[in-house]
Amino acid sequence: MNTKITLLLAASFIAIVAVFGVALILVHNGIVDADKRVEEAKAQIGAVCQRRLDLMPNLIETVKAYAAHEKSVLTSVTEARTHAQNTLDRLARDGYTPETMKALETSQAQVTSSIRGIFALVENYPDLKASSNFLALQDQFEGTENRISVARQRFNSAVRIYNSKIEKFPGVLIAPIFGYQEAEYFEAKEDAYEPVQAKF
């Protein structure tokens, strides 16, 4: 009889350990998946910001042909683009950390401001506003601004899901064991990430 009880207790203990092990694996894998979605969303923000930077030289050249004497505006756009490109290069090199994400936010705010300056400048040049090259660029910028907004929303959604997984039970017990920490949301500076208004 004692042998049967001992075997039953041993089997029960093994079953409990197995259930706990499976639960640990499932929770850990869920956190890993959520973390990977956050990383993917960060990379998408970088990709759409790069698209915007890639469009800027075409915009500058198009405007330059009409407004060559507006050098200060064109220079500020070029400088903002260079700073933002350096930031994206740093992200590619160093990875997406809270510090590099803040640098990305700041550099993209400067880009947004400089693009607004170009579009304000265009108001003084009716021929430029009617140029097919400029109109095509305007459409591409508007599409890119929408992509940036969507990428930012997806990132923040992925961060919310990830943070929920590591803050809810049993993730709150498991996440610290594997070094998972709360992720920060992508927050724009005031109106920095509102779409550039380019209505003519």
TrEMBL record:
Gene3D superfamilies: LemA-like domain
SUPFAM superfamilies xrefs: LemA-like
Transmembrane intervals: 6-27
Entry-linked InterPro entries: LemA-like_dom_sf, MamQ_LemA
Subcellular location: Membrane
Organism superkingdom: Bacteria
Pfam families: LemA (PF04011)
Protein's membrane topology: Single-pass membrane protein
Keywords associated with the record: Membrane, Transmembrane, Transmembrane helix
GO CC aspect terms: membrane
Entry's family note: Belongs to the LemA family.
PANTHER family: MEMBRANE PROTEIN, PROTEIN LEMA
Name of the protein this chain belongs to: LemA family protein
